[in-house]
Design a protein that fits this description.
The complex is a heterodimer of chains A (400) and B (266). Chain A is α/β, with parallel strands linked by helices. Chain A contains 16 helices and 14 strands. In chain B, strands 5-4-3-2-1-9-8-7-6 form a nine-stranded parallel β-sheet. The chains are: A alpha/beta (400), B alpha/beta (266). Chains A and B meet through helix 1, helix 8 and strand 11 of A and helix 3, helix 5 and strand 6 of B. Chain A: Belongs to the TrpB family.
Chain lengths: 400, 266
């Protein structure tokens, strides 16, 4: 990395990103979180750990993922050159595998015998089930009933990979409730079980660990940009639910002041409360799932229901580092509505022959609009966080 | 000296132990919660924990979680709960403490929460998601207001850390009996008595045990080693029936249930 920004020297030892982050969890979990913090610190100093992860990235995941010039999409938008960081080409079809392999290696180091995970769109569930199958670790995945309905192909994949999928029937029966249930399981099994959290959310050290494992996206993009474009991109765009693909994409660019970073949240049906899942755009600082960050909450601190066409973005909170970047003014956050995301999906499918995940379609839709405001000699990179096979049936259902 | 300090001082002098029931505010409504609190007091319970419903409880099992969901379905607000407690606290002998997520306290405003709770006659708060590392500021606010911040130790807490928590906690120390979520259990961990005994030898702070306790046998086993016992899900499960059965019957059953526990404590 050419420059190291003070904005990259977070979190501190307490897991704080400025005022955000920290640990707001029951006391029962602190020993496991301390153990994970210590083991991760040791792993970072262990060349064998990084070598094993690098080998898995190269030979199991298929990294580096390509940086692809979307020529016809660029012609359609009549502005900046649009490039795609193809995380959809990773093994299991999304960026999620980067984090699950890293955390599965940590699970082995900690000698834990079982893994639990939560999933919204199912991509993290599939990636966790895959990593666990690779290492031979029993795996239970919590998933909201509504998401099980929306993401049947991924549910089937998890089962084929040997994972047990436990439906969650409480609350809104989506990702937020799946996280609650996974935390409850962990409370009762913490001595033997590692919780592979799927995004840059949750108590310290999860936001840092997940960001670090996902930063391979931004590091590769940086190198590829210098090689292919001869310079860094002018703008980088990624979708933000919990925010793991965006954190991994943005973090290596945070010190590069010439690179504009834009996160795109789920604007849902409208800006009215309950119609979207955009805590950075419309929420306020509060506590959810173990950390202090922007959340969708009412005047009493109760978490609000949220909506997104994309199961992976249908979450009322966001990673604390995004809150930090927002308040520091380093990253701009905006929202893109369901209908726009569908238009982004269609555009990429029809112009480039790529079916993007509905999550990534939010970033594509925004990038198309934004590229049109930029000059033809400028470049914009979109993190194409996952592929859209899982969403094809739901899109067909929505369109009747 | 707070009302809770006075209470434990008296209990120790008389060689007695505390029974602390837990009820969820607003399940099925605030009127019934007030009635249950009065009934628990009439039966001789020592202190009452009132759970302020939270949309995303992590430490709670299905019984208490469901009671929170029912209460929140009626759009119950913190100010309404404090207004109810303000009325009932002056009618009962037992001190009242709240079990409340820090998500709620943060949003409400920590200073305002302590001031309003105190004005409602609440003596302290148990904040299950506020770890000792994060508690400094709120702890100072509580101390300045002579409001107890009751902290938790669990079976997974290393001993050195348990002592740090005991030094920070006021009123009493909440010892969580099991590594898990709230809920009734038939078996308690075999090393529970020994672990609480060790902690009791290290601190003068009263120690009360909660999570999993529901039977007179549990009370008999744990009373000698603790200063008090906390019973939650077994009461909340009975109170839940007030939504579908005559309230007088449910109230009587709750009262009779705590009486069996009080008898085991005597």
């Amino acid at each position: 990395m050419s420059t190291v920004s003070p904005l990259q020297s977070v979190p501190d030892a307490a897991g704080r990103f400025g005022s955000f982050g920290g640990r707001y969890v029951p006391e029962t979990l602190t020993r496991a979180l301390d153990e994970l913090t210590a083991e991760y610190a040791k792993a970072q100093q262990d060349p064998a750990f990084q070598a094993e992860l690098d080998d898995l990235f190269k030979n199991f995941v298929g990294r580096p993922s390509p940086l692809y010039f979307a020529k016809r999409l660029t012609q359609r938008c009549k502005g900046a050159q649009i490039w795609l960081k193809r995380e959809d080409l990773n093994h299991t079809g999304a960026h999620k595998i980067n984090n699950t392999l890293g955390q599965a290696l940590l699970t082995m180091r900690m000698k834990k015998k079982r893994v639990i995970a939560e999933t919204g769109a199912g991509q993290h569930g599939v990636a966790t089930a895959t990593a666990c199958a690779h290492f031979g670790i029993p795996c239970v995945v919590y998933m909201g009933e509504e998401d099980i309905r929306r993401q049947a192909p991924n549910v089937n994949s998890m089962k084929l990979l040997g994972a047990e999928v436990r439906p969650v029937t409480s609350g809104s029966r989506t990702l937020r409730d799946a996280i609650n249930e996974a935390m409850r399981d962990w409370m009762s099994s913490v001595d033997t079980t590692h919780y592979i959290l799927g995004s840059v959310v949750g108590p310290h050290p999860f936001p840092r660990i997940v960001r670090d494992f996902q930063s391979v996206i931004g590091r590769e993009t940086r190198v590829q940009s210098l090689e292919r474009l001869g310079r860094l991109p002018d703008c980088v765009v990624a979708c933000v639910g919990g925010g793991s693909n965006a954190a991994g994409m943005f973090y290596p660019f945070v010190g590069d002041s010439t690179v504009k970073l834009i996160g795109v949240e789920a604007g849902g049906r409208s800006s009215r409360p309950g119609d979207h899942a955009s805590p950075l755009s419309y929420g306020s600082p509060g506590i959810l799932h173990g950390s202090f960050s922007y959340v969708m909450q009412d005047e009493d601190g109760q978490t609000c229901d949220v909506h997104s066409i994309s199961a992976g973005l249908d979450y009322p909170g966001v990673g604390p580092e995004h809150s930090y970047w927002k308040d520091a003014g380093r990253v701009t956050y905006t929202a893109c509505e369901d209908d726009d995301a569908l238009r982004g999906f269609d555009a990429l499918a029809q112009c480039e022959g790529i079916l993007p995940a509905l999550e990534s379609s939010h970033a594509i839709a925004f990038a198309m609009k934004h590229a049109a405001t930029m000059k033809p000699d400028q470049t914009l990179v979109v993190c194409l966080s996952g592929r859209g096979d899982k969403d094809a049936a739901e899109i067909a259902r929505l369109r009747g | 000296m707070t009302k809770i300090d006075d209470l434990f001082s008296q209990l120790r002098t008389s060689g007695k132990k505390a029974l602390m029931p837990f009820v969820t505010a607003g399940d099925p409504d605030l009127q019934f919660t007030a009635d249950v609190i009065r009934e628990l007091d009439r039966r001789g319970c020592t202190m009452c924990e009132v759970g302020i419903p939270y949309s995303d409880p992590i430490a709670d099992g299905p019984v208490i979680q469901a009671s929170y969901t029912r209460a929140l379905a009626h759009k119950i607000k913190v100010q309404q709960i404090l207004a109810m407690l303000g009325k009932v606290s002056s009618e009962v002998k037992m001190p009242i403490v709240t079990m409340v997520s820090f998500a709620i306290i943060h949003r409400y405003g920590p200073e305002k929460f302590v001031a309003d709770a105190k004005a409602a006659g609440v003596c302290g708060a148990i904040v299950p998601d506020l770890l000792v590392e994060e508690a400094d500021r709120f702890s100072a606010i509580c101390k300045a207001a002579d409001f107890n911040l009751i902290e938790l130790v669990t079976p997974t807490t290393p001993r050195e850390r348990a002592l740090r928590i005991a030094n920070s906690s006021t009123g009493f120390l909440y010892y969580v009996s099991i590594a898990g979520i709230t809920g009734e259990r038939t078996q308690l961990p075999p090393d529970l008595v020994e672990n609480v005994g060790w902690l009791k030898s290290q601190t003068k702070l009263p120690i009360c045990i909660g999570f999993g306790i529901s039977q007179p046998e549990h009370v008999k086993l744990l009373a000698p080693v603790s200063d008090g016992l906390i019973v939650g899900s077994a009461i909340v499960r009975r109170v839940a029936e007030a939504a579908t059965r005559p309230r007088g019957e449910v109230l009587k059953e709750v009262g009779e249930y705590v009486s069996t526990l009080l008898a085991a404590l005597a």
